Amino acid sequence: MSGVTGAERVRSRNDFQHFVNSYKALIGQYPGFCSIAISGSYNSNINKQDFGDIDLVTHINTTKLKSKLKKDLQQFFLQQPESIIVPFSSVKYAGRRSYNSGEIVTVRYFDTDLGYSVQIDNIIALDTTEADFKRKFLDFPATKQGLILGLVKIAAVETEPNLLFDKLGIDIDALDPEGNKFYQEYEFNLSSSELQLRKVTYIAGTFQQDSRSILWTSRNMQHLEQLLYQYDLTQNFDNLLENTKIMLHNPRSYKRITGVFTSMVSVKSGEVGTKKGEEKTLAIGKIYTAFEEHW
Question: N or C: at which end does the chain have fewer Cβ atoms within 10 angstroms?
């Protein structure tokens, strides 16, 4: 069974594409619908033949706040027959017909031609730039996503921040006229939604965050590439990790990148004993081996 819905796994790549095509006819009825784009392991691993769910970057043009849009989209799904938008059968969420979490609205969708239902995660985007950013980021394998998240987090520790600001076209004097004071620094943060520049204030004498404010955001994938200009983001996880080992020099970076990676890449209960779970476990071991001697 798959995820929060308890649906079956998608049995083949052909079934996957069939589900997407038929689902598009349904979601296309929602006001403001623009497009859906496949993301995730279907794209990143062309040898993969079955899938736990279908990840779709769902672009909807609206003036609504995203939180309101997602609730309205849930109502749209509830108006569909239960034979198409099927009640969940997972123990935790049995009977529900949609799940709203973070950037995602999840449903269990039944295809009459294929004769079974699967979990579909609608990753909501409100414009083409956001849709493109999300699709490209989510096309990275999970282990590579985790490593890139770590590299972003330590970018301003490893490289003079003003150099990064210049590369990104950030006017830091305009954004933060006061500048950094004691126990403050700039840091970048990445999620599947956007790239952020934050100003962080630490508790005196520690690196424990007391507060932070967001100074700048971007959903332009080119900005991620410019921020991590020392790295070839087209490399696979192993090669990118080797590149990272060579590039790091600040003692703070090793523990921080390990922490970010292990918080993002974890083996879920349903992945224990599976190939996906084994791949994650192996990657976590490689991260510890690469950096723990520097802690």
Answer: C
